[in-house]
């Protein structure tokens, strides 16, 4: 089993920044990949970014490129998502996820956190 706990969400003005963290525990190994997704009411969960458990091969959706950075803190077993130049369209519940295998933009992840709310005001 793998447990994921997100933190760092909140309210920020457009153009501001937030840093989300995902603390991972349990039986997670180097062959896992970590992803960040987001969801708004009435819409499907959408991919934001992903990275291997070793911190390699970061991968982003087009809307996140150049603004968001995914990284892995090996000392703390956390995966972070630094979000800059935030826009009101980034408002969503953000979820951390883990899967056995390579990073993928699909929702084919076995483990999910509870989510953290990000609200960007205009």
Can you describe what's shown?
The protein is an all-beta fold. The protein contains no helices and eleven strands. The strands form two sheets. Strands 2, 4, 5, 6, 9, 10 and 11 form a seven-stranded mixed sheet that branches. Strands 1-3-8-7 form a four-stranded antiparallel sheet, with no helix packed on it. A hairpin with a 4-residue loop joins β7 (about 70-75) and β8 (about 80-85). It is globular, with a radius of gyration of 13 Å. The mean pLDDT is about 95.
Dominant shape: globular
Average of per-residue pLDDT values: 95
Count of helical stretches: 0
Helix content: under 10%
Radius of gyration: 13 Å
- The rounded distance between the terminal residues' Cα atoms is 40 Å
| pLDDT < 50 runs, ≥5 residues | none
- How many strands, which pairing sense, and closed or not: the largest β-sheet? 7 strands, mixed
Q: What is the structural class?
A: mainly beta
Strand content: over 45%
Number of extended strands: 11
Describe how the helices and strands are arranged.
Blueprint: E1 2-7, E2 10-13, E3 18-26, E4 32-39, E5 46-52, E6 59-60, E7 68-73, E8 78-83, E9 92-100, E10 111-112, E11 116-121
Parallel strand pairs: 2-11
Antiparallel strand pairs: 1-3, 3-8, 4-5, 4-9, 5-6, 7-8, 9-10, 9-11
